[in-house]
Amino acid sequence: MNRHLVVRFGAYSIRADRRTLTVCGALLIAALGLGLLGLCLGGSWTPPGDVLAALAGHGDDVVVVQEWRLPRVLAALVFGAALGLAGAVFQSLTRNPLGSPDIVGLDAGAYTGALFAITVLGGGPAYLATGSIVGGLFTAAAVYALSLGSGLGGLRLIVVGIAVNAMLTAVNSWIVLRAEMEVALAATGWSAGSLNGLDWHEVVLPFAVIAAFTLLLAALAPAMRQAALGDEQALASGVRLDRLRLLMVLAGVGCTATVTAVAGPIVFIALAAPQIGRLLTRAPGVALAPAALSGAVLLLAADLAAQLLLAPVALPVGVVTTVIGGCYLAALLARRRTRQAT
User: Cross-referenced CDD domains, in alphabetical order (predicted)?
Assistant: First the structure.
């Protein structure tokens, strides 16, 4: 049986692995199921039938479902996918499963930029988004400059990123301590990473920005697959590696910083999602679609757990993802140790 499926659109065609398509379909169904469950949860349980009716504009729960719960569920879906894409980008660049934005300091850098926007510029949505993206880009440039001996790959970049992350975390703590009490309390609560209280006016623009970066990565996907085979083969096939890597970094930082500007730093989704997608698809490299869908499922599940663990009090979702990330790192290290022992 042919492992690949070719879909044609006129003069264009897409060749996809059947297992990857099956996994992506299963992840999409899981995401939709978790999303429906999220729309049912709240101050009180709403039956799925009433939720579907409310989504169609009928019944007594239209405002509750469409205005209160739907923005949060869509934010978990879109932001989880964005973090999965960012993790896939940087793990592809570094060729290392630890090469994710939260490990190499990009989350901390985006948070530093957002803190600057909050404490100095007043913290408007535009300032937050700009500060987060600029902070993430400066951090990426600093990590790259400090690891020039190994380029964008190898263990050196990971170690440098961890060091930069630690320094930026200290800087962020200093900024919060120096800020006024109200600003410091808001920044501290926001730093945990939370989807609580999001409404439509806070998420529409970030959704559009993430959609633009997703389209950019979709356009870069063929060149990324060539680059994953090695620099020599990529250059022989006509890929401009410097331009490709610059655009990949821009898209990865943009996805991470956009999520950070709205919800705060949500850690470990970008670390775990690409590897989970790779494990499920058994793909040789880090594929974008499975990583994005795995990230969406992880963040949706984490947000549901955050709402249920101490109900009726909703925890910041970052608390749950930190626990998930710790378990993932422990499993990753144990798996590597087992491989080395054999």
Answer: TM_ABC_iron-siderophores_like (cd06550)
Measured distance CA(65)–CA(301) in Å, rounded: 18
302, 77 Cβ separation under 8 angstroms: no
Could you tell me how far CA 151 lies from the centroid of its own chain?
24
* Number of domains into which the chain is organized: 1
Model confidence pLDDT, tens digit, residues 113-144? 888 888 887 767 778 888 888 898 899 888 88
d(CA 132, CA 107): 9
Q: Note whether residue 26 is domain-resident.
A: no
Q: Using only the alpha carbons of the chain, give its radius of gyration.
A: 20
Retrieve residue 139's tokens.
């951090």
| CATH number of the domain bearing residue 252 | 1.10.3470.10
- Gap between the Cα atoms of 126 and 124, Å rounded: 6
Q: CB-based contacts of 246: which residues, under 8 Å, 6+ apart?
A: none
Cβ 113 vs Cβ 257: under 8 Å: yes
- Dump pLDDT digits (tens) for 285-340: 778 999 999 999 999 999 999 999 887 888 899 989 988 887 877 777 777 677 66
**Dihedral Cα 18, 24, 27, 31, nearest 10 deg:** -150
The answer to whether residue 258 sits within a structural domain is yes
Does 184 map to a domain? yes
Is residue 24, in this structure, part of any structural domain at all? no
